[in-house]
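Suppose a colleague, Dr. K., hands you the sequence of a protein chain of 393 amino acids and asks what its three-dimensional shape might be. Before reaching for any lab equipment, you can write down a predicted structure in token form. Begin with the sequence itself:
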Amino acid sequence: MKITSVRTAVIDGNFPWVLVRIETDEGITGLGEAYWGVGVAELVHKAGPLIVGENPFNIGKITELLIRCLSGEGSSGGATVTAISGIEIALWDLVGRALNTPIYNLFGGRFRDQIRVYADCHAGATPDPASYAERAKSVAGAGFTAIKFDLDTPNPYTRDISDDPHPRRQWCEPWNRTIGAAERNWMVDVVAAVREAVGPDIMVAMDAHWKFSTNDAILLAQALEPFDLLWLEDPVPPENIEAQRMVTHSTRTPICTGENLYRKHGFRELIEKQAARIIAPDIPKMGGLMEAKKVADWADTYYIPVAPHNVASPIGTVASSHVCAAMNNFLVIEFHAHDVEWWKDLVDGTPPIVDGFIAMTDAPGHGLTLNEDVARANLKPGSSFFGEYPYEC
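The predicted structure, expressed as tokens, is then:
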């Protein structure tokens, strides 16, 4: 079997979902997805000619070939690795279909029949903690046993004071990553309201999007300890692992991070220094299924759970779930499109997520069939539907 073409279609969801289709001379195809980003689809098409004629079963070789041949484009991280991830996922789907077996069987089989999903709720309709509580009850009522909210959202105590004629009246400002006491109290009130709304049995996580300084992140994490959070995510910028480690080891609130790291090399220091209690690789972004499994196995030597970040369509979400099923240290995977009503309609058959879980079936590959009518109706302007890219690679 030989690869004959690599094509893309970008779907205009809550993020641009970059779907990747690989075709072969035997008529078997694979469908993957790369994390969104400027230039990702272009890089997929640039990679295509490099692997045409290759045996699609040689996924490790193909991935290494792309990393080496696209080194000039930056294959140690960023959009280039993301493009390679989409190709890699499509190859696993293709191989699974060729062998008539699910992807999870290609990674040693599954530890679990269902994959727990957490719903990203973002925020309340207003900055009032009661609004966050209402949103939490609504999403939990849809069957999700795990939810997440953002804590870095605008609130009554944050504003741009650059034009304030009397800045000394407010000791914190938006660029030095500090948290004022009133703002921290608001965050605590939000978490308290959410926890009270959903009770003790719903997993609750909070996301800070790398906003705060080390000291302020520690104070916030310690203030949230009474609420038994699943985690506090990305409280400090991701570049400094020592700062991450300091926060992690200064609180009983679990710290989660990892969505901005690439390939196994990017996770090395984070894992070896035990700088997070939970790691969150974004699988269609950081290198693909095999790379994610390597990272998970490495984390497991330190008994660190894995909770993948995920903003993908059903294709990337379910494909990622297959390798999660094969991880003994998997915890939960993200769902970021709760408000996209047609998310589930992008694929045929039973909705991928039912009552907050993804069921692992015996269907070959990732088991999904793209609904072409829905995909075409939501195609990103300027994208072709798995056609040739509009320039020579």
